[in-house]
Design goal:
It contains eleven helices and 16 strands. With 317 residues, the chain is of the alpha/beta class. It folds into two domains: 187 residues, Rossmann fold (3-Layer(aba) Sandwich); 120 residues, 2-Layer Sandwich (Hypothetical Protein Yjia, Chain: A,domain 2), CATH 3.30.1220. The protein starts with a strand and ends with a strand. Belongs to the SIMIBI class G3E GTPase family. ZNG1 subfamily.
C-alpha cells in the first residue's frame, strides 16, 4: 500500500512549521509522519503537542524523537519500515529550497509507487510581503510560489486591510486566487490529502466528511461509471473541469486498456495518471473538490458522462 506525501515549501519564517503543526494536530484520522527541514525524520501520532523548528517533536506520552541523518530516499524508506507505518507523510523543506528539485525526486517512478506526491503547498508570509514588496521579484520566492499546487497566505492578522488588499492583488499575478487560501480558513488535512485513503472496492468515493463541516468554503462531487472511459474524452473533460477544481482524485480504466486500472490525481494545475493495483467492480470512481459555488454539478456530470463508453450508466452526486 502506498503512503501519500504532502510537500510544504516557503521562505524561512513564512509559517511552514505552523502549517505542519496544523496537519499533525488535526490529521483527519491519519497517522502522519513528518520529514522536517533537512529531512530529519520525526514520528507523529494524533496526540502531538508541538513541533519545534529544530525537528524535535514532543508527544503527550513523553516520547521525543530527534532528526535522523540521511537523504530523502533513505528517510522515506525508514519511515515506511516503521511499525505501524504512517498513513501519510509531510515533508517540510528548508526556507532556502526550490521545491522543484524535490518534486522531481518524488516523481521518480520508484519513489512515486511507494510514496505518491499528493500536494505541493507553498506558505506565503503576508507580513513579509507587505514590508518587502520587492520580494515579488525575488527569484527563489517566485520559484517557490510557482512550484506550489496551492498557496497558503499566513500571518494575515498582522497586516492592516489596505496592505492586505495590496498583497492579495500582487500575489494574484503569480498564483490564481482560487488556489490561494488564508491559513486559518484551510481545513488542512482534508484538502491537502483529498480523501481518507483508498475507497473500498466497488464503491464510489464519498463526500469527504470534514469538508462537509466546511461546506461554506468547499464542495465535493463524486462520479462513478460501470464501463471504461475514452482517454481523449476524459482528457477533454478534465481540461474543462480543471479551472474550476482544487482537487480531483480517483480510479479509472480506459477502453483501450480495460484491464489496466489507473490512479488519477489533480491538484491545482498538476494532473497525473499512473497505474495502480487497486481494482473494483466499477470502471471509474472519482471525487471532485472545488470552492463552494465554483462547480456546476450538472455540467461536471455531463462532461464526465461524455467520456464514458456507450451503454453505460454513470452516476454522480
Amino acid at each position: 500500500m502506498s503512503v501519500p506525501v504532502v510537500l510544504v515549501a516557503g521562505f524561512l519564517g513564512a509559517g511552514k512549521t505552523t502549517l505542519v503543526n496544523a496537519l499533525l494536530r488535526d490529521p483527519g484520522g491519519r497517522r502522519i509522519a513528518a520529514l522536517v527541514n533537512d529531512f530529519g525524520a520525526i514520528d507523529v501520532d494524533a496526540d502531538l503537542l508541538g513541533l519545534s523548528n529544530d525537528g524535535v517533536v514532543s508527544l503527550r506520552n513523553g516520547c521525543i524523537c530527534c532528526s535522523l541523518q540521511g537523504d530523502l530516499m533513505r528517510s522515506l524508506t525508514r519511515l515506511l519500515r516503521r511499525d505501524p507505518a504512517p498513513d501519510a507523510i509531510v515533508i517540510e523543506t528548508s526556507g532556502a529550497a526550490d521545491p522543484a528539485e524535490i518534486v522531481r525526486q518524488l516523481l521518480d517512478p520508484v519513489i512515486f509507487a511507494a510514496t505518491p506526491l499528493e500536494t505541493v503547498v507553498t506558505v506565503v508570509d503576508a507580513r513579509h510581503l507587505a514590508d518587502r514588496p520587492d520580494l515579488f521579484e525575488d527569484g527563489l520566492w517566485r520559484a517557490q510560489v510557482a512550484g506550489g499546487d496551492l498557496c497558503v497566505l499566513a500571518k494575515t492578522d498582522l497586516v492592516d486591510a489596505s496592505d492586505l488588499a495590496r498583497v492579495r492583488a500582487d500575489l494574484a499575478r503569480h498564483k490564481p486566487p482560487r488556489l490561494t487560501f488564508d491559513a486559518p480558513a484551510l481545513p488542512a488535512a482534508d484538502l491537502l490529502f483529498s480523501g481518507e485513503g483508498r475507497p473500498p472496492e466497488g464503491r464510489a468515493p464519498a463526500r469527504l466528511p470534514r469538508l462537509a463541516a466546511a461546506a461554506d468554503l468547499f464542495e465535493s462531487v463524486s462520479f462513478t461509471a460501470q464501463r471504461p472511459l475514452s482517454l481523449p474524452r476524459f482528457q477533454a473533460a478534465v481540461g474543462r473541469l480543471a479551472p474550476r477544481l482544487l482537487r480531483a482524485k480517483g480510479f479509472v480504466t480506459f477502453d483501450h486498456q480495460p484491464d489496466r486500472p489507473m490512479l488519477f490525481q489533480l491538484v491545482g494545475t498538476r494532473a497525473t495518471l499512473v497505474p495502480t493495483a487497486v481494482t473494483g467492480d466499477l470502471a471509474a470512481r472519482l471525487v471532485l473538490i472545488a470552492r463552494a459555488g465554483d462547480l456546476d454539478r450538472d455540467r461536471a456530470a455531463a462532461w464526465l458522462d461524455a467520456a464514458v463508453g456507450p451503454g453505460d450508466e454513470a452516476r454522480s452526486g
